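1st attempt posting a full record on here, be nice pls
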Amino acid sequence: MTGTVAVRALCLDLDDTILDGRSCLEQGWQLVADHWVSERPELTHERALAELEQARRWYWEDEVRERRGRLDLYGARLEIVSRALERVGPPAPSLAAALARELTDYREAAVRLVPGVRELLGRLRAGVPRMALVTNGAAAPQRAKIERFGLACYFDHIQVEGEFGAGKPDTRVYAHVLERLGASAQESMMVGDNFACDVLGPLVFGMRAAWVNPSGKTSPVAAPRPYLMLRCVLELADHLV
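the predicted structure (as tokens):
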């Protein structure tokens, strides 16, 4: 998909699309490793990071755990840290809880708007008839971020997984959003960083899609139809009319 595209309804993802949580991700796990090593001096920092990385992959690559974890990020982090700790020593529930809480507090404090995204939202709001914010995750933390950054004013509809009862890429999500926006799938676009949720799901549903892909990595599976690929969500303004 190239050039400019006319859309009646635009759906935007929240995390790692208009909010930047990615740039603080690895720093957060570095802090966890530092804390862990300070409590277990016999452990090297490199070993701690390696065990945490292995546990992260184990957790998030499983579809059932992924669905559970996105609704309870602290619980997911606790399970990840507990698994890492138990691979190198006896269970340490108090330490695991402290590490998971430290990471959660750090990530919540460090998240920021993508620089320039407020101006982008203003331009999109002026040029696109209907807009929705469509985010997976639990209701309370997602709503807290929406309020913290004053995002509600840009959208005609906001749909949060924890409130709606289903998350992307469930087709019920897109069907409900487009019903609320009064638009057909063919005249709508979903924009986000998660290939399965924000690209494949919408394309299968009949929508257009744009993948926010800062690293330029290749798609994990073939898409049924062409889609936009953006290094940053700010590039979206160059493709919409």
